[in-house]
Write a structure and sequence with these properties.
Mean pLDDT: 94
Low-confidence stretches: none
CATH architecture of the largest domain: 3-Layer(aba) Sandwich
Shape: elongated
Number of strands: 17
Oligomer: single chain
CATH superfamily of the largest domain: NAD(P)-binding Rossmann-like Domain
Distance between the termini: 56 Å
Strand content: 15-25%
Structural class: alpha/beta
Radius of gyration: 24 Å
Largest sheet: 11 strands, mixed
Length: 437
């Protein structure tokens, strides 16, 4: 029987969940792994917070450095969150010969290349299944299960907060602000939800998945990001009338020498299985050249779902320790010498169909001016609808286009926005129907 000592840095929601599993399911996990996991220390600066677990005397401490420097601890689990302190502690732990597990997507998306190199240099493991998609085994799928596939595309709903808000707006016809407030009340949104609702949380996760899928360096800044704050119940209603649902999507498409990498709201047809992913749930569709489409679905966050993914990494590392096969599986799915820089298309280069909603004065000739500008920019109209609803002195003009180049779309919208008859900023939502460039 092999004993493995664990140290946890950070005892918030996920840290508490991991601790509960290591303590309460200790014998069960041993029966499946042959390993006795000993939670030696948990460090957190907040010793007054009420937690749903009671530690044995001496397990809970305030000094993270004590865990990092403890020669008896084999695996350190970083669950502090954020970037600066988490990075410092992770680097120290790796340099001290500790294997590290983390759920920190911001840390990996920002400093993953450096952390991976540090792990290799010190011959230790660095694992992060819980960083993307909660309990969905998306990293294991890309790194191991689909190792024989060229990944052609990935499309995911990777943020439960945004998905909950859009679901509420769709099902209950409520405003964005009301849906956000309900998300906070349910615990699906942070007090400051900026990273979620503006799309950056999804971008962090997409940056990690892209690296694993294509053997690419992690480059967060290459990803185009839009949030959901401009989506209104009116747009959701129009989408429904046209046979679409609006979701915040993380999208990547592989063109061998270039890739797409973008996060933004999109209309998807009801035939797309992602259209049925409601509430705080997450899902990702991975398209491999061998397997075709594979969809993973599950809780994208939460104490126990995320803790489950952390335990999976701990067990994988423990098995490697026992068999003396450190870094048996490359950390990013490709051997380090095969990790390369792959250019990412500018958002201006993509082709898609588009939904426009213009708030226009109810004057003759407005539609002909709009359609004329679109035609001048090689944008073909598929559907047009001008309703009689008078909203604050304007009527909505809704247009859906055929495939068009984003650069042309932006130029046309700039000209349309200058028309005297256009009262407010146009609403633009891309339509995803799996059409490539």
């Amino acid at each position: 029987m092999k004993n493995i000592n664990i140290g946890i840095l950070g005892c918030g929601i996920v840290g508490t969940g991991v601790s509960k599993l290591l303590i309460e399911k200790k014998q069960f996990i041993k029966s499946r792994t042959g390993v006795l996991f000993n939670l030696k220390h948990v460090a957190d600066i907040d010793i007054k917070r009420q937690r749903s677990i009671t530690f044995k005397q001496g397990v809970f401490i305030k000094d993270a450095e004590k865990i990092i420097n403890d020669p008896e601890i084999d695996i350190i689990v970083e669950l502090i969150g954020g970037k600066d302190i988490a990075k410092d502690f992770t680097i120290k732990a790796l340099k001290n010969g500790k294997h590290v597990v983390t759920a920190n997507k911001a840390l990996i998306a920002s400093f993953g290349n450096e952390l991976v190199k540090t792990a290799y240099k010190n011959n230790v493991e660095f694992a992060f299944e819980a960083s993307c998609g909660g309990c969905m085994p998306v990293i294991k799928t890309l790194r191991e299960s689909m190792v024989g596939n060229t990944i052609e595309s990935m499309t995911g709903i990777l943020n439960g907060t945004c998905n909950y808000i859009l679901t509420k707006m769709s099902k209950e016809n409520c405003s964005f602000d009301k849906a956000l407030e309900q998300a906070k009340e349910k615990g699906f949104a942070e007090a400051d939800p900026f990273l979620d609702i503006e799309g950056f949380d999804s971008a962090h996760k997409l940056a990690i998945l892209i690296s694993l899928a294509y053997g690419k360096e992690i480059t967060l800044n290459d990803i185009y990001v839009e949030g959901i704050t401009e989506i209104s119940p009116m747009d959701i209603q129009f989408a429904r009338e046209f046979g679409y649902v609006i979701k915040l999507l993380a999208i990547s498409k592989n063109y061998k020498n270039n890739i797409e990498a973008r996060v933004h709201p999109a209309m998807i047809p009801l035939a797309n299985p992602l259209s049925y992913i409601d509430g705080s749930m997450n899902a990702v569709v991975i398209n491999g050249d061998v397997t075709g489409e594979t969809m993973l679905y599950g809780h994208g966050a939460g104490m126990m779902p995320t803790a489950s993914a952390v335990i999976s990494d701990i067990v994988d590392i423990a098995r490697n320790i026992i068999t003396k096969n450190k870094t048996r599986i490359p950390i990013l799915g490709y051997f380090q010498e095969n990790i390369k820089k792959i250019p990412v298309f500018s958002i201006k280069e993509i082709n898609a169909s588009y939904y426009f909603r213009f708030a226009a004065a109810d004057n003759p000739g407005v539609l002909s001016k709009i359609s004329g500008i679109l035609g001048d920019h090689n944008i073909s109209i598929k559907i047009v609808q001008q309703t009689g609803r008078n909203i604050n002195g304007s009527v909505p003009v809704v247009i859906i286009t055929h495939l068009a180049k984003e650069e042309n779309i932006q130029k046309a919208l700039k000209m349309i926005s200058k028309l005297d008859s256009i009262i407010d900023k146009p609403v633009v939502i891309r339509i995803e129907e799996d059409k490539k460039i």
